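re the bet — no i am not wrong, look at it urself. input seq straight from the record:
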Amino acid sequence: MSSRRASKARAARGKAKAGEPKGESGASKERSREPEREPVRSKRRGAPGKDAKKSEQKAPGGQANAPASRRSSPPARRGAGRGRLARGAEREFSAGGVVVRGDEVAVIVPTRRAADGSRVLSLPKGHVDPGETPLQAAEREVREEAGVVAEPVRELGESRYWYRREGRTIGKSVHFYLFRYVRGETADHDEEVEEARWIPLEEAEKTLTYPAEREMVTRALEDLKEGQRKDR
């Protein structure tokens, strides 16, 4: 009996081995195929595969390209570009200063008149030359147009406006800085200025020609008053 049972067991094992394919078992083959499916799932979930990395490198501004449905219409372009504006309009960059001496501020009357021919009362300001920072340009313009040397305190803000010159539209951006008077005489201004003088800050806040410059004087006054409160 025992020999018959042993023969049957050997026969059963032989059939089982004959039914299995040579090489890896079924479970081993399933495990070996798992890594092949992983990249497919990653792409569907938006993982950064090779194609995604290429898209990120080509996308402007360092951002990945948007899906096709979002790229159907290009983003709107603003007219106020850094170099040129819409339809070829130009852009200029200037800097100026609110130079304070006690409760007075240095103002100028440029030789160039306003569009209506009237005299202009303004703050010293001018173009930023190549290689200059806005602050360096403001220091230079204060020295040239107001005739004085001053030390910077802080930036007050930026004004932007448009004007027409010889049939062209010019977009102008002016950075203003608060300065503290150090030395010099307003009579030492350059030839582009008709007159430079000191007037009370509160008067300048009302009488300067351009609203943006009046706003800068207001900010300077607020800054000085805040400093006085802290010193008490």
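see?? Helices lie at 2-19, 26-44, 50-58, 134-145, 201-207, 211-231. told u. also The first strand starts at residue 90 and ends at 101. so pay up
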